[in-house]
Amino acid sequence: MKKKKMLSRTSFTILVTLIGGSLIIGGCKQNDIKTTDSSKETSSECKIDREIISQVSTLNSLMAGNYDGIDSVDILKKTGDIGLGTFEGLDGEMIVVDGQVYQAKASGEVNIAPETIKVPFSAVTFFDKDVEAKFQGISNIENLKTQIDNLIKEKDAFYAIRVDGTFSHVKVRSVPKQDKPYKILSEVTKNQPTFEYQDIKGTIVGFWSPDYVGGINVPGYHLHFISDDKTKGGHLLEVSMISGDVTLDSTRGFIMGLGDEKNSNSKAAVTKEDIEKVEK
């Protein structure tokens, strides 16, 4: 278990940067970061802070139909080893687990994402468990969230979530790639393909975010799923779990990169109801 920095309960760090395809991590531009083969440590001039969630763009921007890519997958992999998001043109759901980025497409197919493909929205972090528990007999997704709620002690922090388990039922969705002019996300998800799986082993990854980040990310839970054999996955809609290991990583650091404003579609108003429709 990692050593945590001594932070007050009200301590929270946000760095927002306007980018043309380069996240800034721990005060360093991504193209300045040098990694070794044996570890995730960087050069003495630039060291990655593992206590940070690195996010590309905002939820409201994605909801408004801004699906043009900002950062590429190869940059994303340098900023975290667990997380979620989507791809340029809204081409499927992103699942990041154990440092690998997977693309769950609208056809139901799951592939390793090409490193050159760009992303319009993502959130990743380097996962170091702070909390762990074993769950059994989870009847549905609301039951799962309620049980995880009991593990979240700091309601003003972010939590990365990982659940490795055996599931009696999983329901996920993906989204089909969009062509310009882009529709807003709540319109796209009206015709989303869904997939249901029985008796499957896999991993749920995602985040719990505080209420005050509404518009930046999803307040509460945002969860994706991928099977152990990496052939099935997507945005998690429903789940029943026989048993599983739950681990959480709390963090108060948050960095966000924004795309080019001149390419932004800001005409669409995004409501709380729109977000709830998309998440369900």
UniProtKB/TrEMBL annotation:
Gene3D superfamilies the record matches: Hypothetical protein, similar to alpha- acetolactate decarboxylase, domain 2
This protein's UniProt keywords: Acetoin biosynthesis, Decarboxylase, Lyase
GO term, biological process aspect, one: acetoin biosynthetic process
Involved pathway(s): Polyol metabolism; (R,R)-butane-2,3-diol biosynthesis; (R,R)-butane-2,3-diol from pyruvate: step 2/3
Gene Ontology molecular function terms on file: acetolactate decarboxylase activity
Highest taxon listed in the record's lineage: Bacteria
Stored PROSITE patterns: PROKAR_LIPOPROTEIN
Pfam families the record matches: AAL_decarboxy
Catalytic reaction list: (2S)-2-acetolactate + H(+) = (R)-acetoin + CO2
Coiled coil residues, start to end: none
EC number: 4.1.1.5
Top-level class of the enzyme under EC nomenclature: lyase
Recorded family membership: Belongs to the alpha-acetolactate decarboxylase family.
Database matches in NCBIfam families: acetolac_decarb
Protein name per its UniProtKB record: Alpha-acetolactate decarboxylase
